[in-house]
Amino acid sequence: MLARLKKFLALEYRYQLLLMQSWFLLGWFRAAVLLVSFKRLSASLEHHPVRKEASDLSPAQLSEAMIIGKLVSRVATVTPWKSPCLTQVLVAQKLLAQRGIPGQFYLGVRTDCERLDDASVLSAHAWVQCGEAIINGAAGHEQFTVMSTFSWGAVP
Question: How far apart are alpha carbons 17 and 50 in whole angstroms?
């Protein structure tokens, strides 16, 4: 724990603030996912039933988006509650939108090969894309079929 505190204190002040904001938002959105309908959570976003083309980002925006995505993923590993992909995506989206960085997140599903009582198991996954880069939830996303896309910002 002392090593983590030293790492935290060694960060630039703006990253310390971003890390703390991410931690609190992960808790907030985890509770929201459990208590509020997804329709209400995504009300401020533009819904696209099919995959949407990504917006072009400046190098500075892309760099900031990559930092946010990585930070949210890392913070999610140290929360005392579960912080699954949907919660991480909602936090990353909020942080990106606050900084004026456009993007989209995808909700995908797949049918797992495992069977329970002759019924296939449905798995879901969410990931965030800014420009051409997937900044959060990239691991295994290609195994999922996109069911919905939600965007914010200047999407063409």
Answer: 35
